[in-house]
Design brief:
about 475 residues; alpha+beta; Beta-lactamase; D-tyrosyl-trna(Tyr) Deacylase, Chain: A; five-stranded antiparallel beta sheet; 22 strands
Length: about 475
């Protein structure tokens, strides 16, 4: 009896799944040993290693099962952005006037940092003059996304990595506090890199004795009143000069204070007020501020694992911009379509905000490996590799000592995740893709991270 046509898709799906299961390979002895030292079970490991040009995988362990990649998910966002937006992509921040009001329209630039805001406002003043008779209006309508508590992920709202996306993102809504000890006076002088209108920081904090350990806690920062931050403790003199990156405790008010503060610092005058609104029809363009090109932004994102940039980049993939506001749903659909077009099954990826700072994001090692093989064939491949830390030398990739100077990899870590993915340049001149993730309550340990290094080291053996 012939099979009914309606069962054919199910048969093909089952066949594909069987092939994936059959592709499992034994774990190499060095990897087994590393798991044993870390006291991790084999089912906590998800790995896939294969030649970058394609061909059978050298290692496939739970490779078709989704796992949490942490910040390694930024690789997916990077590849989607380079493919969909192109390496010449830049964000725009246009400034308009209607004759009396000035309008700053955010379109999602995550790199509108202090120095670039300074340049943008100087260019505006060169056209309009330093005195603004009307209001300074901030247009944030380019994103249509829900407001999320910055402390919702891990209860750390003052950590810059928790800053949430905003169509107008000034200096990633963060300040850098610097404490410079003055032993003769028994104090450390406090300075900040960002002029925030109406905010008064204490000029000094007392110097204290003892070792420089948990000095941030010892300062006892009180931001219950964001315009009057206070320190209830002191800084150990043994710390020397220290810096503290701090997400602003009032993120909704940061843009207005930063832009007004910078306008006044440039010698400008403001007769009206800073408020939110939309650019009216018929307004005249004064200046169009441009972000750095995408490859430079990717380097900032991947080498320093910047979650805010990754989420803004994800939203840049939402269709129809700038005419249509960006949404998470639109961005996710774009990424899913790209991933599936490169041979990943529908159940191999769960994308949330594209940064890995999510409880929900998942990807299979095989899917991510296939995407890296595809990226190797693309004209923008050098831009992708150039954005990744070099093993053994840069940022978090310094721990990957088995391939020191011979791999471009993105790492990721959360409380229960240790992950790594990228391209290894083998000593025989051949290159291969490595994807390895550990999902386990002990994944944050040094021994668990050594499992990642063991996979990379094994992959470099001659074949």
């Amino acid at each position: 009896m012939p099979m009914p046509p309606r069962f054919l898709p199910l048969l093909l799906a089952c066949a594909a799944f069987s092939l994936c299961v059959a592709a499992q390979t034994p774990l190499p002895d060095p990897v087994r040993a590393a798991l044993a030292r870390a006291q991790l079970p084999e089912d906590s490991l998800y790995a896939w290693v294969a030649p970058v040009e394609g061909g059978p995988a050298w290692l496939a362990h739970q490779s078709s099962t989704r796992a949490h990649p942490a910040s390694v998910m930024k690789l997916v966002t990077s590849m989607a952005a380079l493919d969909r937006l192109g390496p010449l992509f830049q964000w725009h921040t246009p400034v308009y006037t209607d004759g009396s009001q000035l309008y700053v329209q955010g379109r999602g630039d995550p790199r509108l940092v202090n120095e670039r805001l300074w340049l943008l406002l100087r260019q505006v003043m060169a056209v309009t003059g330093p005195e603004l008779r009307g209001d300074l209006v901030l247009d944030r309508s380019a994103f249509a996304i829900p407001v999320v508590d910055p402390g919702a992920f891990d209860g750390e709202p003052l950590k810059p990595y928790n800053v949430r996306p905003d169509a107008l993102m000034v200096n990633q809504k963060s300040v850098l506090l610097t404490f410079r000890p003055d032993p003769a006076r028994g104090v450390a002088r406090v300075s900040t890199d960002t002029a925030l209108a109406g905010v008064q920081w204490p000029a000094t904090v007392p110097l204290t004795g003892g070792p420089c350990q948990d000095w941030r806690t010892g300062l006892k920062l009180d931001v219950s009143d964001p315009v009057r931050p206070r320190f209830g403790g002191g800084l150990p003199a043994a710390c020397g000069e220290t810096v503290w990156p701090l997400a602003w405790p009032d993120p909704a008010g940061f843009n207005a204070r930063a832009i007004e503060g910078q306008w006044l610092a440039l010698g400008g005058r403001l007769r009206g007020r800073v408020r939110e609104g939309r650019v009216p029809a018929g307004a005249t363009l004064v200046v169009d501020g441009l972000s750095p090109a995408l490859p430079e932004v990717l380097r900032d994102m991947n080498k320093h694992s910047n979650n805010t940039i990754a989420q803004h980049l994800m939203l840049a993939l939402s269709p129809g911009q700038p005419e249509q506001p960006a949404t998470w749903e639109g961005a996710r659909a774009e990424v899913q379509a790209l991933v599936q077009s490169q041979g990943c099954r529908d159940d191999e990826l769960v994308i949330d905000n594209g940064s890995g700072l999510s409880r929900d994001e998942r990807i299979s090692a095989r899917c991510l490996g296939r995407l890296l093989q595809w990226a190797w064939t693309q004209p923008w491949m050098p831009e992708l590799l150039g954005s990744l830390p070099v093993a053994g030398t840069e940022t978090t990739a310094r721990r990957v000592v088995s391939a020191s100077g011979r791999a471009h990899v993105k790492t990721g870590s959360l409380a229960n995740v240790a992950a790594l993915a990228g391209v290894v340049h083998g000593p025989d001149g051949h290159r291969h893709v490595v994807v390895v993730m550990v999902n386990h309550p002990q994944a944050a340990s040094a021994e668990a991270r050594a499992v990642l290094d063991a996979v990379v080291g094994w992959s470099m053996a001659p074949r």
